[in-house]
Structures are given as C-alpha cells and as structure tokens.
Amino acid sequence: MWCCRAVRYASSGTVHRTASSDASAQNVCLSLVRSHDKENFLCTLLLKNPERRSALAVRAFNVEVAKVSEKVSAGNVGVMPLKFWENTVTTLYRGPADGDAGAVPDHPVIRELHRAVREHKLSKRYLQRLVTARANSNLHFVTVKQLEDYAEQAVASVLYLLLEVHGTRNVHCDHAASHLGKAQGIVNLLRSIPYQTRRSAVPIPQELLMAHGVNQERMVRNRPDDKGVEEVTFALASVAFRHLETARGLIRTVPRPVRPIFLPCVSIERYLHRLRLARFHLTDASVMRTDSLLPLVLYWRKLRGNY
Questions:
Q1: Spans of all domains in the chain
Q2: In this predicted model, what pLDDT tens digit does every residue of 96-119 receive, in sequence order?
Q3: Is residue 13 classed as helix, strand or coil in its secondary structure?
Q4: pTM (global) more than 0.70
Q5: CA distances (Å), 147 to each of 38, 81, 139, 223, 296, in order?
Q6: d(CA 283, CA 258)
Q7: InterPro entries given for it (predicted)?
Q8: Topology of 138-306 in CATH?
Q9: Contacts of 142 (CB under 8 A, 6+ apart)
C-alpha cells in the first residue's frame, strides 16, 4: 500500500516539474521575441491559443538563428554556431528508427520548437532555410532578385511555418506569404541601414547603386540632401511596396481563420508611409522612432479584418 502511494506521489511530482519546465520554456520564447522582434511579437500576440504558443516557438527559433549571424562580421567564424542550429533541426526530425531519437538539446527554445514540430507536423525544409539563409553573414546582393530570394528564405519561411501551425497548406496562402515575406525582408534591410555606420558597405543590391550612380560610402553617410541616396532608397522601398500590395490583394483569397498571420502587413505599411513622408531619408527621426500606436492599430485592424 505504501509502495503504491509512493509511486503515485512520484508521478505527480514529475508531472508538476514537467508543467513548470514547459511554462519556463514558453516564457523564454515570449521574452526572446518581445526583446528582439517587437513588431512581430505584437502581431503574434493577436493569434489565438494554442497556435500562439507554437508561433512564438517558431519566431524564437528564428531570433536565435538571426542573432548568430548578427554577431558575426565576416569569414567562417559563424559557421560553427550556425552548425549547431542546423544539427538541431536534424535532431528534431530524427525518428526511433534513426536511433537516439530523444537526444534533443536541453534548451528552452528547442524544447518548445520540438513540441510544435510534433504537434503540427512542421516542414523540416522551412526550418532549414531559416538557418542556411544566414550562412553568409555578409549579405552582398548583385541584383534585386537575389535580395528577394534571400527574403523569401529568411522571412517568408517563418510565415509558411505559421500557416502550418494553423493546419493550412494552401497554394494561395503560400503565394500571399511569399510576397509578404519579400516585402518584410526588404523593409528589414532598409531599417538596418542606419545602424550599419561602422561597416564600409550596406547590403543594397549593386544594380540599384549603379543605376543611380551611388556608391556604398554615400549610402553609409546617408546625407539628407543626397538625391542619389534618396533615389536608391525610393527604388528599394517601391519594390517592397509592390510586394506588400500583391500580398494584400491575395489575402482576400486566404481563409479567414489564418488571416491574422498576415498582420505584419500593417507594420510594413506604416513604416513605408513614414519613409515616404520623410522623403525617403532613412535616418529621419520620424522614420526611426518606435511606432507607439502600432499595438492599438494592430488590434483595431484585426477586429475589422483589414490587413
């Protein structure tokens, strides 16, 4: 009788510790995304549970991978840290037949992602693309097409995974996600330029620089009276805007329950609007400031279904 009670108590303790561990891992993912990906964090909060939890796990994984590439300035220094995340993705999909199926690293983000992979049958190739897209820490694009391909891998892949979290595998949804990912990837690049003053170059496609007779040094200086820099910025912002408009048109064909995944349209639209009002000067205070109204606007736009 005593043995039975002892087993029951031990089992209960194990369940309690597991629940506590799960809650801790969720909090780590939430804090990570809130600290490093604020606008997408606000959009993700407006998703419903249990999908919200898995979406935060996916975005936290993306943040971890992106942090590695941001810390590496050149060369192959970043290969080993990225190799860890590449091996982690392989481990997440290892089945019993492969042996050592339970050897998932004891890392809160990886634990949460592992749960999401099993629960939603997430596609391995999208997680792999998030890692391989950052394999080259120095982004050098010759053409706009190369930049769009990078954004497709590094940003749209997250949206594809969020669609799978919602149980949606639909070509129309994927098409909308592809265009939104490209728009967001280009906007992310534009927003990063003012913070790259220590670098001798910025990741602007060479074909745009050559078309407007602008060199890398002028882009780094980013003087408000430099019309050439303004034209380059306008050209790149226009590419992002076209992808945004295409995505918004396609969202009308997307099933209503998954439309909140496309809320980043709102933050991209608002950034491009501020940039236009500032005459495409990237370091203008109105462009670089935090969008304090964004949480309210996101909530209102979700209620109205207007993305």
A1: 25-95+103-122, 138-306
A2: 555 554 578 889 999 999 999 999
A3: helix
A4: yes
A5: 23, 24, 9, 24, 32
A6: 35
A7: Isoprenoid_synthase_dom_sf, Squ/phyt_synthse
A8: Farnesyl Diphosphate Synthase (1.10.600)
A9: 205, 206, 207
